[in-house]
Amino acid sequence: MNVLVIDKSALISERLVVLVKDAENIEAVYTASAYAEAILIMEQVRPDIVLLDMNMPALRSIDIVKKIKKDHRTAALIVLFNHVNEIKKQYCDFLGVHFIFDKYHDIEKIIPAINSLTNGKQKVNPAL
Hints:
- The chain is an alpha/beta fold.
- Helix content is 42%, strand content 20%.
- Strand 1 (2-6), helix 1 (10-21) and strand 2 form a beta-alpha-beta unit.
- Helix 2 (35-45) packs parallel to helix 3 (60-71).
- The longest helix has 12 residues, at 10-21.
- The two termini are 16 Å apart.
- Residues 122-128 have low confidence and may be disordered.
């Protein structure tokens, strides 16, 4: 399965890539640090899982979530906040996000979440 990590911080992206590569059934991990780059990669790669920093500049993270839900409905969404509260959880549930984590306190939950999405699943070619 292909994973796209979207985070404005190169350092955090690098750490997330290392983390994601430890998950099961991961074929490739791509990174994007800005909205336009993320959209381009999504169109080219069609990731199975998107790991998204919800603190992107100019509310672009919400735009990315909406774009994924509209154009890439089969992609699973894992979002990261600097701080998670009930309102953010409810809004993400409304948007159809699969997992919501606090970027600094829930990092150990990312691998089990990805494994739950990838276990028993193999990459399927949508053209077949």
